[in-house]
Amino acid sequence: MRERLDERHPMPLRRIDPGARLVVASHNPGKVVEIEALLAPYGIATVGAAALGLPEPEENGATFEDNAALKARAAADASGLPSVADDSGLVVPALGGAPGIYSARWAGEFKDFRVAMERVRRELGEKDRSAHFVAVLALAGPDGGMITFRGEVHGRLVFPPRGERGFGYDPIFVPDGGDLTFGEMDPAEKHRISHRARAFAKLVEACLALR
């Protein structure tokens, strides 16, 4: 899928130079760490939204793209800096696409993904265990520009959860062609093949370069 570009303000978002400061518009420490690691080779200085004391906007969009865009826009407007936001989730076709954009909400008030993974297991029962992760990265400029990038990785679910690495639903997801869950996988290997890495590769092609 090609990136989506707001043509009213395309130019400020078509290039991010080394040394630029970018807000990672997330309060999820795992996501912040992953995005920071992906940006590090490009000399981009990052700061998390929580470190800046930015509030979390309500995620009331109907799609991953909607939610990523509203988080990036809120952070860019509040900080006056370019901001990147991620919205991601686990999509299980046998559950009608759930948990989907509600992936974090399935973990409850205390963001306990053991609860969320058990709910997936319980509701799935003996149904087909095919699943995929979706990640959408939205890059917003303080001038109003917006561009989004989508990545997906397909695989299957396994129970009980395996591995202590990663975060979220990683311990129950095995990518196609693999035997380890994202929760068991070396972080560098996960970063290489993950849904977030695939979305990030599109962002790199559009906006970044090793110079």
What does this structure look like?
The structure is a single chain. The protein is α/β, with parallel strands linked by helices and 211 residues long. The protein has one domain (4-207): Maf protein (Alpha-Beta Complex), CATH 3.90.950.10. The chain is built from five helices and seven strands; from the N terminus they run E-E-H-E-H-E-H-E-E-E-H-H. Strands 1, 2, 3, 4, 5, 6 and 7 form a seven-stranded mixed β-sheet that branches. A hairpin with a 5-residue loop joins strand 5 and strand 6 (146-157). It is globular, with a radius of gyration of 17 Å. The protein starts with a strand and ends with a helix. Mean pLDDT is 87; it is low at 1-13.
Notable characteristics:
211 residues, alpha/beta, Maf protein, seven-stranded mixed sheet, 5 helices, 21% strand, globular, disordered N terminus
**Global morphology:** globular
CATH hierarchy class name: Alpha Beta
Major β-sheet annotation = 7 strands, mixed
Q: How many helix segments?
A: 5
| Helix and strand pattern | EEHEHEHEEEHH
Instruction: Please give the number of β-strands.
Output: 7
Measured distance between first and last alpha carbons: 26 Å
The CATH architecture assignment turns out to be Alpha-Beta Complex
